[in-house]
Amino acid sequence: MADTYDFLSPTDQPALIGISTLDWLGKVRAALVELNYKVHTASNQEDFISRFNRTHYQVVLIEESFAVPSPPENMALAILQRMLMTQRRHAVILLIGEQFSSMDRLQAYQQSVHAVINPQDLDRLREIIQQVVADNELFMQGFMEAIVQITTWGK
User: 49, 79 in Cβ contact below 8 A?
Assistant: First the structure.
């Protein structure tokens, strides 16, 4: 089967969704569209990893048990968690699962993501995404300034 590509313009804000619970998917998609993200939805784990490797997504939301019966079988999440930071630095990754307390920094750290979200808080997902993205931009600001300096030395 040939891959289909959704081309992005330089002004697009791409977001990737890996969610198989239909109710959650609708809420996540609505929040991202409201925030002006260009949303791509993965149909399965292989599609998720393929899309993530092809596009520099700004925001990624994945369900703890995306397209699998239980969380330990979620290979897409496992690959993201083990991926080097240089390969995923461009993306803010949010993990949705019933066992999490939304915005619990320790749980997010344990899962190697930027934030965890309990599905009960999906009604305020827009605000959560805005906060997590803003926190990440503040955290990365010094690094990004250093990269600019390094790339402009000698010019």
Answer: yes
